[in-house]
Amino acid sequence: MSVQVKIPAVGESISSGVVSVWHKKSGEQVKKGDPLFTLETDKVSTEIVAEVDGVLKTKTAEGQEVKIGEVVAEIEESSAAEAAPAKKEKSVPVAGIGDSGISKPVAADSKPPESTTPAIENALSPAVRRIVDEEKLDPSKISGTGKGGRVTKGDALAAAQNRGSPAQTATETAEPVEALAPAAKDGRVVRKRMSPLRRKIAQQLVMAQQTAAILTTFNECDMSEVQALRAHAQEQFTKKNGLKLGFMSFFVKATVAALKAVPPINGRIEGDDFIQNNFYDIGVAVGTERGLVVPVVRDADKKSFADLERDIADYAKKAREGKLKIEELQGGTFTISNGGVYGSLLSTPILNPPQSGILGMHKIMERPIAVNGAVVVRPMMYLALSYDHRVVDGKEAVTFLIKVKEGIENPKTLPIDF
Question: What is the crossing angle of helices 305-321 and 248-261, to 10°?
């Protein structure tokens, strides 16, 4: 008995994804619970596991875009696979194979194809046909990895990328290579399709710029007191909680205090209405190899420093491993982004729609500043608040940043619980 492997629903707003990698090969024995492949969507990557024991037969190539509910493989259950007798193939000569007239074994009911090109043309999916037409590819010269040798979208994209290789250019005579890909010939240009996550990020950023009146205001904070408090409490905190005390938990606490002082920044516009959120689900941006994701720390105002550090560390690990769930990325009311970990000194973060504000943290850098008429060197950080000017006035934005600054420069005013 065969069990179909279908693309599961992974979120209300997700209708498709990409089979980014098969963890098991076609014809390989799998066990229930084994990861079969990774499904990459515009929000998360999800490992799809086997539901039964058996032999895997894949129907979709790596890199192919698939719809929710689409069958991408079958698993021949172990009992059925063992009971089914092996099919015997008869060797029959096939004329016209090479100059030596050597024959090869094929199924007895197989017939030599009369013409492969029309069959290939008819078998192309709309997505593959579009790539073939746009890239001026010859479908008969594309090696298909799909079921029955079918040319997949991934095959067509690979053929377009490798068009400048010696193996293919030697067979292409309809049009000179220079006209097809003048730059790809020496490797100076490589074309590849953006990942669903990268495309989603691009769409979100453009949408934010087009739909909100984004403005950024800046300030700076002296990190001396936070550094001293953190260094003093680090050993005891680590021993008690099994993890280190970082800076992000201080900024989350300071941000919550600032949002309570300036409520509109914790709201959003919905049509002609303004929605005021009286809860504090703070998104913390995490950079991964696939792109930026923003998992949400729920009810940040009610969590201890240890809880915040644990949530942030767990999300960062899941993000790197591609194991974040869709619900862990939804529903944030405000976002914090730390470009300082990459060395950024100053930036203007872009809103995460439909939120009305995002706080940008930056690199801690020692700079000379004036304190009580004297020049001293202090570890300073620039802060940036980008906000939707339709909701938040300039005075409110400045008030918010000053509140964050006060919380960081005087951390004992925060609800310290360690």
Answer: 110
Q: Cα 7 vs. chain centroid, distance in angstroms?
A: 18
Global pTM reads: 0.63
Distance in angstroms (rounded) separating the CA atoms of residues 312 and 339: 16
Whole-number Å distance between alpha carbons of 216 and 386: 4
Using alpha carbons, list the distances in angstroms from residue 235 to 240, 243, 294, 412: 9, 10, 29, 18
- Helices of type H across 300-378: 305-321
Query: Count of CB atoms within 10 A of residue 138's CB?
Result: 16
Q: For tokens 């769409």, name the residue.
A: 203
Helix (H) or strand (E) holding 328: none
Q: What six digits make up the tokens of 106?
A: 């094929």
Beta partners for residue 57, in sequence order: 74
Q: How far apart are CA 310 and CA 329, in angstroms?
A: 17
Return the closest-CA partner of residue 43 out of 18, 70, 64, 72.
Answer: 18
CA 27 – CA 382 distance, rounded (Å):
56
Give pLDDT tens digits for 234-278.
999 999 999 999 999 999 999 999 999 999 999 999 999 999 999
Q: Is the peptide bond before 354 cis (omega within 30 degrees of 0)?
A: yes
pLDDT digits (tens, 9 = 90+) for 120-170: 555 677 667 767 776 778 887 787 777 667 787 767 777 776 654 433 433
Residue 160, token pair as written in the block: 């377009």
* Average pLDDT over the chain, rounded to an integer: 82
Name the β-bridge partners of 287.
292
Specify whether 307 is catalytic: no
| Spatial distance between the Cα atoms of 201 and 212, rounded to a whole number of angstroms | 16
| 3-state class (DSSP) for residue 70 | coil
CA atoms 339, 371, 403, 301: torsion sign = positive
Name the catalytic one among 133, 232, 299, 393. Answer: 393
Active-site residue flag, 389: yes
Phi, psi of 27 (to 5 degrees): 90, -5
- φ, ψ for residue 171, nearest 5 deg: -100, -15
pLDDT digits (tens, 9 = 90+) for 56-100: 999 999 888 888 889 999 999 876 445 444 444 444 444 343 443
**Where would I find the H helices in 95-218?**
116-123, 126-135, 153-161, 166-169, 177-180, 196-211
